[in-house]
Structures are given as C-alpha cells and as structure tokens.
C-alpha cells in the first residue's frame, strides 16, 4: 500500500485529484468532471492519461499488475465508475 501511496503522491495534483475522486471517492466520471469544473470528455481523456502515468510510476517502483493481484487479496477491488452512460443503460 505504501508503494501505491508514494506513486500517487508523485503524480501531478490534477491527475491525483481525478483518480482519487473516481477510484476512492466513488464518483462517476460525470460527477468528478462537475467537481473539477471540466467537461466529461475532458475528464475521460485526463483519466486515461492519469491511469497511464500511475501505471508507469508503479512500474518504475517495481510494482506490477501481477504483484498487485497477489498482494491485495485481503482488499476489496477498486470501484471505477464509468464516465458516461453506455447505450444499453439509456432509456
């Protein structure tokens, strides 16, 4: 968990805030965009970039997706809400 925390702290504040709102606070992408005062499309783009930067940061610290799965068996999976409704969820 320390490696994840350090990796998040190494990110730019904008990346860290967006990731935190969606992954840990449980906001949807649309809700996070509203909190940050940006358009949902912008939030989607920033989220993709932020996830990539976080992955690079974790990899540089020797943390891989396989090691994450093995080391986090006692922790509930991260909930990432979609940024916009899917066509099947529209009325």
Topology:
Layout: H1 2-10, H2 13-24, H3 29-36, H4 40-60, H5 65-71
Helix pairs in contact: 2-4, 3-4
- The total tally of domains equals 1
* Strand element count: 0
Task: Please mark out the parts with pLDDT under 50 across 5 or more consecutive residues, or reply none.
Answer: 72-78, 86-91
Task: Name the CATH homologous superfamily.
Answer: Winged helix-like DNA-binding domain superfamily/Winged helix DNA-binding domain
What is the end-to-end distance? 40 Å
User: Which fold does the CATH topology refer to?
Assistant: Arc Repressor Mutant, subunit A
Task: Count the DSSP helices.
Answer: 5
Secondary structure category: mainly alpha
Report mean pLDDT, rounded to a whole number. Answer: 80
Structure in words:
By secondary structure, this protein is mainly alpha-helical. The protein has one domain (2-71): Winged helix-like DNA-binding domain superfamily/Winged helix DNA-binding domain (Arc Repressor Mutant, subunit A, Orthogonal Bundle). It has helices at residues 2-10, 13-24, 29-36, 40-60, 65-71. The N and C termini lie far apart (40 Å).
In short:
By secondary structure, the protein is mainly α.
Key descriptive features of the protein:
single chain, elongated, 91 residues, mainly alpha
């Amino acid at each position: 968990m320390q490696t994840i925390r350090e990796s998040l702290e190494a990110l730019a504040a904008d990346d860290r805030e967006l990731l935190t709102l969606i992954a840990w606070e449980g906001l949807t992408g649309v809700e996070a965009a509203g909190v940050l005062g940006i358009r949902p499309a912008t939030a989607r783009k920033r989220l993709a970039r932020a996830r990539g930067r976080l992955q690079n940061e974790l990899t540089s610290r020797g943390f891989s997706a396989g090691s994450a799965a093995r080391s986090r068996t006692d922790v509930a999976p991260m909930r990432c809400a979609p940024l916009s409704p899917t066509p099947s969820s529209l009325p």
